[in-house]
Amino acid sequence: MTTPTGEPKGLQAVLEERGFDLTGLRSKCSPVCPFESQQCCMARLLSQQDDFCNQTSMLEKLIEDAGHICLFLPKFHCELNPIEMYWGWSKYRYRQATKPNFAAAKEAATDILNSCPVEVIRRFINRSHRFLSAYRLGLTGHAAEWAV
Ligand SMILES: [Zn+2]
């Protein structure tokens, strides 16, 4: 990815070294690549290379080095993340709380976040696991929602 002097080689040089024909290929799509495109631009082509796909991110490494498991949930699937349900539970109660001034609002936020019972948090986690199970069984959209 870098020259012997430490300068970045750039997309084109890296792909040409790997034997790709880049004739007519732009460097990057704007604003984003078309969905499910394979070779729309150099950036997409490079992102599909094994060494890029399988590279551990700094965030993953930091989390795993601390002895934890790092899981990335799919984008736009908030139903798979129990923290979203917890936020929803807390925001509903926060809106109902009386907040005469900013200090009271801050205190109400902390109190409400700490007041969620463990049983309720377990239900959020179970609900996320039921969605995971439904998706693993091949259900999608409304069918998965119905099954959960
Ligand atoms: Zn693209």
Short description:
53% of the residues lie in helices and 0% in strands. By secondary structure, the chain is mainly alpha-helical.
Structure overview:
This protein has helices at residues 11-17, 42-47, 50-53, 58-65, 82-96, 102-114, 118-136, 141-147. With 148 residues, it is an all-alpha fold. It folds into two domains: 11-55, no CATH class; 78-147, no CATH class. The model has no long low-confidence stretch (mean pLDDT 93). The structure holds zinc ion. Zinc ion (ZN) binds next to loops. It comes from Pisolithus tinctorius Marx 270. GO terms for molecular function: nucleic acid binding. This is Tc1-like transposase DDE domain-containing protein. InterPro entries: RNaseH_sf (IPR036397).
List the helices and strands and how they pair.
Layout: H1 11-17, H2 42-47, H3 50-53, H4 58-65, H5 82-96, H6 102-114, H7 118-136, H8 141-147
Residues 29, 33, 37, 40-41, 44 line the site of zinc ion.
Strand/helix succession: HHHHHHHH
Q: Which ligands, by name, code or SMILES, are bound?
A: zinc ion
The averaged pLDDT comes out at 93
Oligomer: single chain
If helices are DSSP runs of H or I spanning 4 or more residues, what is the number of helices? 8
Q: Work out the strand percent.
A: under 5%
Q: Give unreliable regions as ranges.
A: none
Distance between the termini: 46 Å
Give me the Rg, rounded. Answer: 23 Å
Helix content: 40-55%
Question: How many individual domains?
Answer: 2
Organism: Pisolithus tinctorius Marx 270
GO molecular function, one term: nucleic acid binding
Protein name: Tc1-like transposase DDE domain-containing protein
InterPro entries: RNaseH_sf
